[in-house]
């Protein structure tokens, strides 16, 4: 496929085929990645890293091996990311997705992100493929438990912080996220795969589409006949498979999509 790449600034500039599909009350599947939270100030996995973390690749830090090697380094990184999240607000992209969900009876939102910004924007039934930053579990016995308040005051860059002890067995707490080399939650992954095969419109937003098995989802949707629309400020490997590529920031483009859907519905209802 050779999609036209456009950078729309108004709802009218969105591709005609997409506007038409939106007027037909399609089953919508949305996959988001770290890019959708970037305008809320949360670092993506490709941003330049600062301080202690400058020399570490998140893909090496987000592993059980890194935690076994240096639990304080890994826990401190997540503690800092929790702090950043508590300071962050959902952006216009999160808000637009929550508004879109209320307009379409069949709307599945699946995220690779471990933040809660979709929920805070009002999205419901969000499927977290990679877990949640604000939840902790014991590295040894697996028991989920509330994350104690950050042990450190506000810091500009992550610091080493010793993980708290598990209330049940005294083992070390870890973030309840899926690290590289760990399996994704089976129920969430199965429901995402099923919904991607049944959707009419797959919106792939703010993801480098390089992390598997999440990156398989857009291909499952196309193979099942869905329209694939990519929203990203840069090129991604999935662009070449897309029907439409909307180049730009999700905080700018998603509100246009939501407006277009609203008017398409009004026209469709006329
Ligand atoms: C597993 C939680 C196996 C932690 C994360 C094939 C099949 C299966 C596995 C593999 C495979 N090939 C390789 C693997 C292994 C690996 C993998 O995919 N590696 C990659 C690097 C090749 N996969 C795994 O390890 C997975 N586990 O498969 O287990 C197994 C099987 C059996 C038994 C045991 C094990 C686990 C993967 C999950 C890892 N955990 N997160 C944490 O967050 O700390 S993934 C992590 O990376 C985040 O979730 C994040 O979402 C993701 C990075 O991807 P993106 O979200 O796309 O973010 P990124 O920064 O990369 O890109 C941002 C994008 O946004 C960019 O495109 C940018 O242009 C754009 N953008 C930026 N700003 C904006 C914007 N776009 C629009 N608007 C903006 N404003
Ligand atoms: Zn325990």
Describe this structure in words.
By secondary structure, the chain is of the alpha/beta class. It contains nine helices and ten strands. A seven-stranded parallel β-sheet has the order 1-10-9-8-2-3-4, with helices on both faces. The protein has a three-stranded antiparallel β-sheet with strand order 6-5-7, with helices on one face. Strand 5 and strand 6 form a beta hairpin. Helix 5 runs parallel beside helix 9 and helix 7 packs parallel to helix 8. It is elongated, with a radius of gyration of 19 Å. The model has no long low-confidence stretch (mean pLDDT 92). The protein binds ligand BV8 and zinc ion. The site of zinc ion has 8 residues, from loops. Zinc ion binds next to loops.
Number of strands: 10
Question: Secondary-structure element sequence?
Answer: EHEHHHHEHEEEEHEHEEH
Mean pLDDT: 92
Spatial gap, N to C terminus: 34 Å
> What share of residues is helical?
25-40%
Give the DSSP E fraction (strand runs of 2 or more residues): 15-25%
Strand order of the largest sheet: 1-10-9-8-2-3-4
Class inferred from helices and paired strands: alpha/beta
User: What low-confidence regions span 5 or more consecutive residues with pLDDT below 50?
Assistant: none
Bound molecules: ligand BV8, zinc ion
């Amino acid at each position: 496929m050779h999609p036209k790449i456009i950078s729309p600034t108004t709802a009218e500039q969105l591709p005609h085929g997409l506007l038409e599909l939106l007027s037909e009350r399609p089953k919508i599947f949305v996959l988001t990645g770290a890019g959708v939270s970037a305008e809320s100030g949360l670092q993506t996995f490709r941003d330049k890293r600062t301080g202690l973390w400058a020399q570490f690749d998140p893909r090496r830090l987000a592993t059980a091996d890194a935690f076994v090697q240096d639990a304080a380094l890994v826990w401190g990184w997540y503690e800092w990311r929790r702090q950043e999240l508590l300071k962050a607000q959902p952006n216009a992209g999160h808000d637009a997705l929550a508004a879109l969900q209320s307009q379409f009876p069949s709307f599945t939102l699946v995220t690779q992100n471990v933040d809660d910004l979709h929920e805070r924007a009002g999205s419901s039934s969000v499927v977290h493929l990679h877990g949640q930053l604000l939840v902790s579990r014991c590295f040894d016995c697996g028991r989920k438990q509330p994350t104690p308040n950050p042990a450190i005051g506000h810091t500009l860059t992550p610091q080493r912080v010793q993980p708290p002890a598990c209330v049940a067995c005294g083992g070390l707490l870890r973030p309840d996220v899926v690290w590289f080399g760990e399996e994704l939650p089976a129920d969430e992954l199965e429901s995402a795969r099923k919904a991607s095969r049944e959707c009419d419109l797959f919106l792939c937003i703010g993801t480098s589409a390089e992390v598997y098995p999440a990156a398989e989802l857009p291909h499952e949707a196309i193979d099942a006949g869905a329209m694939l629309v990519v929203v990203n400020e840069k090129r991604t490997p999935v662009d070449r498979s897309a029907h439409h590529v909307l180049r730009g920031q999700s905080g700018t483009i998603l509100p246009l999509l939501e407006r277009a859907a609203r008017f398409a519905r009004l026209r469709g209802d006329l």
